[in-house]
Amino acid sequence: MRRTKPTDPTWSDVLQQRREASGRMHRRAMLAGAGAMAAGLGLARPAPLMARSLPNGARPSAFSTSEDPNSWEEITTYNNFYEFGLDKSDPARNAHRMTIDPWAVVIDGLVDRPGTYDLADILHGQQLEERIYRFRCVEGWSRIVPWIGFELAGLLNRIGVQPSARYVAFETLLRPEEMPGVNRRVIDWPYREGLRLDEAMHPLTIMATGILDQDLPNQNGAPLRLVVPWKYGFKSIKSIVRITLTEDQPHATWEATQPREYGFYANVNPDVDHPRWSQATERRIGDGLFARRRPTLMFNGYGEEVADLYAGMDLRRHF
Ligand SMILES: Nc1nc2c(c(=O)[nH]1)N[C@H]1C(S)=C(S)[C@@H](COP(=O)(O)O)O[C@H]1N2
Ligand SMILES: [Mo]
């Protein structure tokens, strides 16, 4: 297990304890907060666990992987967020310039209750969960991220999806005065993405609001970003200001920019190479310089949950 500082409590310890604790408490049908967890564990070191308790009543989830999460440092200093620059270190350096309060999201298109919802409205009534997910960038790196978020399905159901809707389109904030990267027309701003409705409604698909016990840092897409763990990272659009239910397949930024290289589906698939590199293996962030690349898993290891969505589809053609 890697640590930010050698004195940190190891995450694997904390997570293992948390998992055991939540299992016990589920059995006793009394899932409670960190206080109860710490008490139930008789911890020698209650302080670190308390300090890292899940925020805002978030619950652990059976969808979480048991792999060790990457460190805060590893998750927040190596990012793709082109609105703030092309280098991996640019978002951490520049994204503080983005104003995230107040924040509003327009939800429109084929919905029963279209409107402009502020962040509190969006969060209202949504059960937060910790989702420790594998995350695989199309560039060939990966990491394990302990997201805090809620299922997108919960939000869509509240807004009311009309029967004719087949897709969900997402749009990122575009505010040039706060985003030094958008002066370069590397892509057609704003950053946009889309999912088929059944993908959007899948229980693995979340809107993230935090990482570990912190609010989402700006460089990771504050205050609200999509996370679709079985797809390449570029589908997980950041800092969302608009969600539109549509009948037709929406515009997706990378698909529109380089259609030969990036598809609409973008399911993680070790058998379908990027035209310029293999997708068979990946470099886990935090692995040593000489560590072996790890094998990439079909659907990023979430095949049991999502393979049915693509039954009968040619995944080479719909890549
Ligand atoms: N708005 C926006 N969203 C974005 C991107 C971006 O450049 N702009 N990059 C994508 C890519 S390529 C990846 S790998 C992930 C990176 O998310 P992370 O920095 O939280 O790991 O964000 C995705 N979402
Ligand atoms: Mo990516």
How is this structure best described in words?
This protein is α+β, with helices and mostly antiparallel strands. The chain has one domain (5-310): Sulfite Oxidase, Chain A, domain 2 (Alpha-Beta Complex). Helix content is 21%, strand content 20%. Strands 3, 4, 7, 8, 9, 11 and 12 form a 7-stranded mixed beta sheet that branches. The radius of gyration is 19 Å and the shape is globular. Molybdenum atom (MO) is lined by residues 80, 137-139, 233-234.
| Helix/sheet category | alpha+beta
CATH architecture: Alpha-Beta Complex
Helix fraction by DSSP (H/I, runs of at least 4) = 10-25%
Ligands, ions, cofactors: ligand MTE, molybdenum atom
The H/E string reads HHHHHEEHEEHEEHEEEEHEEH
Number of E-type strands? 12
Number of DSSP helical runs: 10
Please name the fourth-level CATH homologous superfamily. Oxidoreductase, molybdopterin-binding domain
End-to-end Cα distance:
34 Å
Search tags:
Sulfite Oxidase, Chain A, domain 2, seven-stranded mixed sheet, 21% helix, binds molybdenum atom, alpha+beta, binds the ligand Nc1nc2c(c(=O)[nH]1)N[C@H]1C(S)=C(S)[C@@H](COP(=O)(O)O)O[C@H]1N2, five-stranded mixed sheet, 319 residues, single chain, disordered N terminus, 10 helices, globular
